[in-house]
Structures are given as C-alpha cells and as structure tokens.
Amino acid sequence: MGFFFSLGSLFESDKVETKDQILYLEPSGVIVDKAITRNDPFEEFEVFEGSTNQIELEGFLKIIKSAGKDDDLKAIYLNVDGLSAYYTSALKIADALYEARESGKEIIAFTSGLGTTGYLMASQATEIILEKNTYEPVLPFGFNRVRMYQKDFFENIKVNMVVYAAGDYKSGPEGYTRNDMSDTDRLAWLDFVTPIWEKYKSKMRLGEALNQEKFSISEIITLCLSRKMMVTIMKPLSLLVLLTS
C-alpha cells in the first residue's frame, strides 16, 4: 500500500492507478465557488506576494466523492490545516467525507490544531493524526464577526458623519455612527448564523458518535498531557487521536 497522488495530479489525468493506494490530499488555499483569474503583471515576481490559491468547491467535492466510490482505493488522507473554507462550503466537504466514510472508506485527517471549520471536516474522519509538538488548540469555538465601531473617533477628529437610511436592518454604516452593535444588527446576525451553527453541531455529533468506542475525553486529555502537549479540547470530542513522532 502506498500514497499515490496529491490534489494537483487528479486534474492532470483522468486515469490513475488506485489499487491498494491512499488518496493523499494536502490542499493549500481557500475554497471558492468559482476561481477568479487576475491579470496581475507583478504576480510573477517573487518580491511581490502572490495571490491566495483558489480551490473550486465542486472540483474538490468530485475528488472526494469519486474516491469514496472507488473500491480499489484503501483510504483518503486529508491535511485540513491549509484548507480555508466558508461556513457552508465546509458543510458540503464534511458531507462528502461522511458519505465516503459510510461507503467503507478509511478517512484519515491530519492537523496541528483545529478551529470550527477544520473540526467539522476532521470530525468525519475515522482517525485524526495530531502533530506531536503543536501549540495550536483543538477548539471549535463557533462563529464570530469582528467589526470596528468608530463614532467616538470621528467625533474626536471633528468629523460629522451623516447617514441617510430608512427602515430597520440598515446596519452597513453603523461602524461610523455607533460605538457598539445595535439590537437589529445583533438579531440579523443571529438569525443568519444560528441555523448554520445548528447544522455544524449536528454534523459534528454524527461524526463523533461513530468513534465513541475509540477514546474518551479523559483518555485523550491524559494522552496529550503525557506527551507535554498544550492542547485545549472541548466537549464533545470522542475521536481517535494519533500523535506523530
């Protein structure tokens, strides 16, 4: 058994030998619905930072789903650390991993630390490999939104901000006219994010429930402490954690 290809090679050829092989995925970039091509004359020069690598969602899902249906393929290995995805994109990737797992495919996730979207995707794996000397947390904290409120700032520099708006839920310019979040903006954000968070929790629990026979919370924490790892683990977590040497 061996590793046989990375993400890029799958797009280069339609025919790949998969007998007794492991699909090795180490994507680095952001998941997008459609990649945007920029004609930047300076992008080729190393002195200028390159644009963020874009990975189209449908292509990535096609790879996982095809691997899940391939009876010759032994397992799927996914490094989730370099993969950035929006809330709903991460849900679709988690669904594809779950379907591959339900078809009998071994799913191995590697990480040095997990946030919310990474935890969601990794929770669908049959095994998680956690980097031994990591200082990153395993912390599915939920969703947040950061916004600057600058009303006092503009008053101090003698700038009078005038906003014309009619009706409720006009929160766009509140950063200039308020020092905190309005009740209507808070309500709109919660109405948007709560259904998504409920889906996340449901999907996480489903993935974790299939691994409850592996390790308990206390066993994982004891294992991490014995290896002198600074890892924060929040309930519920009952996944198999393997530590790299």
Question: Which terms would index this structure?
Answer:
245 residues; alpha/beta; 2-enoyl-CoA Hydratase, Chain A, domain 1; 6-stranded parallel beta sheet; 3-stranded parallel beta sheet; 8 helices; 15% strand; elongated
**Major beta sheet summary:** 6 strands, parallel
Residue fraction in strands: 5-15%
Would you list the SSEs in sequence order as H and E?
EHEEEHEEHEHEHHHHE
Radius of gyration, in Å, reads 22 Å
Mean pLDDT: 77
- In which order are the strands of the major sheet placed? 1-2-5-7-8-9
So, CATH architecture?
Alpha-Beta Complex
| Domain module count | 1
What does this entry look like structurally?
- The protein is α/β, with parallel strands linked by helices and 245 residues long.
- The chain has one domain: 2-enoyl-CoA Hydratase, Chain A, domain 1 (Alpha-Beta Complex), CATH 3.90.226.
- Helix content is 36%, strand content 15%.
- It contains 8 helices and 9 strands.
- It has helices at 7-12, 57-69, 87-102, 116-122, 151-156, 174-177, 183-209, 217-226, and strands at 2-5, 21-25, 29-32, 54-56, 75-79, 83-84, 106-111, 127-130, 241-243.
- The strands form 2 sheets. A 6-stranded parallel beta sheet has the order 1-2-5-7-8-9.
- Helix 1 (7-12) links the parallel strand 1 (2-5) and strand 2 (21-25).
- It is elongated.
- 23% of the residues are buried.
- The model is unreliable at 212-221 and 223-245 (pLDDT under 50).
Secondary structure: elements and pairs:
Blueprint: E1 2-5, H1 7-12, E2 21-25, E3 29-32, E4 54-56, H2 57-69, E5 75-79, E6 83-84, H3 87-102, E7 106-111, H4 116-122, E8 127-130, H5 151-156, H6 174-177, H7 183-209, H8 217-226, E9 241-243
Parallel strand pairs: 1-2, 2-5, 3-4, 3-6, 5-7, 7-8, 8-9
Helix pairs in contact: 2-3, 3-4, 3-7
